[in-house]
Design a protein that fits this description.
The protein has about 375 residues and is of the alpha+beta class. It is built from twelve helices and eleven strands. The protein starts with 7 loop residues before the first strand and ends in an 8-residue tail after the last strand. About 35% of the residues are buried.
C-alpha cells in the first residue's frame, strides 16, 4: 500500500469521462465516506456490493430519496414555468422533464398544473405529485417519516424557495437538447499529482455522483445540495461547513459546466422531517463556501481512501473494523452479525451468504 497520507496535492486535473475510461475504477462520495466510517462495512457494501439478506428498510435514506424527487420537481417548475421564455427553452424544459421523471410520470406531473391557479398552488401540486409517484410508502414502525409529514415539510420548503433569485444553469439556451442544472449524474476523470517534497505520485480515478442543482448566483456558478434530517440546528450545519461531499461536488460542477470558475459557490438547503411547530425553523438555506485549501484536503482524502479500498478489496475480512460505527443513525449496523463471528471461517460463511445489491449514482 502506497503511503499517501504525508503527501500534499501538487496538481488536480479533471475532465468528463468517455467510453475509453471504462477501465478506471469508480468512486462516489457515498462509497468513500462509508469506507472512512468503517472500512469493513464500506468495502463490503459499496465495493463488493453485498448486503445482508432480509435487511430492514433504511427509512431515513428512503424518505430523503423521495424528498429529492420533489426537490427536482421544484427546480423543473422554476425552469419550465418561470425561467423558460422562448420556444426553444420550453423544448429544453420538456426534454429535461422526460429525462428526470420519464415520459409517463412527467405527463402525470404536468396534469396537476392549472393555468387558473396561482404559481404557489401549481408548484406545490407539481412537487407533491413527484413525491406521491416516487414509490415511497409509510412504514408502521416509523411515525415520523410519513408521506403526510414529508408533504408538510415540502410545502414549507416551497414557501422559502425564490423562483427568480438563483436561475437554473443552462448549457446552451439555443439548443433544445441542452443540459440544465437539475439532477446531474456526473462521471469525472480526476488525475491527482501529489508530492512529499521529494517524490511525486500520480493517481487517476473516476469520480461519480449526482448534483442536485446547478444555479447562477448573479455571474457565479452555484452548487446547491439538498439535505433532509430530523434536526436542523447548528450541529447540523457544522457537518456541511467542511464536508468533502460539497467540495467534491464543486469540483464536479466546474468540470461538468466547463466554466472558468475553478471553485463554484455552494449552498446547502436543509428540510426537517417532520417540520416541527415553527415552520420557518424547519427549513435552512446556508452558504458553505469553498477554497483552494479545502479542494486540496478533499483530494488527499480521496486518494488515501482509495488506497485503503484497493488494499483490502480482495481480502475484505482483513480490513480494519471501526467499532465506533456499529451504531449509526440510531440503528445497529446490518453487518454486525458478520463482524461478531468468533472465527474467520464463520465470517467467510456469512460473507458468502450475503446478497448482491449493486448501487451506483449513475444507475438512478
Amino acid at each position: 500500500m502506497t503511503q499517501v497520507l504525508p503527501f500534499k496535492l501538487v496538481k488536480l486535473e479533471t475532465r468528463m469521462a468517455t467510453e475509453d475510461d471504462s477501465h478506471l475504477p469508480t468512486y462516489d462520495h457515498t462509497k468513500l465516506a462509508a469506507i472512512n466510517t468503517c472500512p469493513t462495512w464500506g468495502i463490503i457494501r459499496y465495493s463488493r456490493h453485498l448486503r445482508m439478506p432480509g435487511d430492514t428498510r433504511a427509512m431515513a435514506l428512503e424518505a430523503g430519496a423521495a424528498a429529492h424527487e420533489a426537490f427536482s420537481a421544484v427546480r423543473w417548475f422554476q425552469y419550465g414555468q418561470v425561467q423558460a421564455n422562448t420556444t426553444i427553452e420550453s423544448r429544453i424544459a420538456e426534454n429535461q422533464g422526460v429525462r428526470i421523471f420519464g415520459q409517463e410520470r412527467f405527463d402525470q406531473l404536468k396534469s396537476t398544473l392549472d393555468k387558473s391557479a396561482t404559481e404557489r398552488t401549481n408548484v406545490i401540486n407539481f412537487a407533491l405529485e413527484a413525491l406521491y409517484t416516487s414509490g415511497y410508502y409509510d412504514d408502521p414502525s416509523d411515525t415520523k417519516r410519513t408521506i403526510s409529514n414529508i408533504s408538510e415539510s415540502l410545502i414549507a420548503y416551497i414557501d422559502r424557495w425564490d423562483m427568480e433569485r438563483y436561475p437554473i444553469w443552462v448549457r446552451d439556451s439555443e439548443d433544445p437538447k441542452s443540459d440544465i442544472g437539475i439532477e446531474i449524474a456526473f462521471d469525472v476523470v480526476a488525475t491527482f499529482t501529489l508530492s512529499d517534497g521529494t517524490t511525486e505520485i500520480e493517481r487517476t480515478y473516476r469520480f461519480t455522483g449526482k448534483l442536485d442543482g446547478l444555479h447562477w448566483n448573479r455571474d457565479k456558478l452555484l452548487v446547491m445540495e439538498d439535505k433532509t434530517g430530523a434536526r436542523l440546528d447548528n450541529a447540523w450545519l457544522a457537518q456541511w461547513i467542511l464536508s468533502h461531499q460539497i467540495t467534491g461536488y464543486c469540483v464536479a460542477g466546474h468540470t461538468f459546466t466547463g466554466l472558468d470558475c475553478m471553485i463554484p459557490e455552494a449552498k446547502v438547503l436543509g428540510m426537517k422531517i417532520p417540520l416541527g411547530r415553527i415552520a420557518y425553523e424547519g427549513i435552512r438555506q446556508e452558504d458553505v463556501k469553498r477554497n483552494v485549501l479545502m479542494v486540496s484536503k478533499w483530494a488527499e482524502w480521496f486518494v488515501s481512501t482509495v488506497e485503503m479500498e484497493q488494499t483490502f478489496r480482495k481480502n475484505v475480512l482483513d480490513a480494519p473494523m471501526f467499532t465506533t460505527a456499529c451504531n449509526r443513525y440510531f440503528r445497529s449496523c446490518s453487518f454486525l452479525p458478520l463482524c461478531a463471528c468468533n472465527t474467520v471461517e464463520d465470517k467467510q460463511q456469512v460473507l458468502e451468504e450475503m446478497q448482491l445489491d449493486e448501487w451506483s449514482p449513475l444507475h438512478e
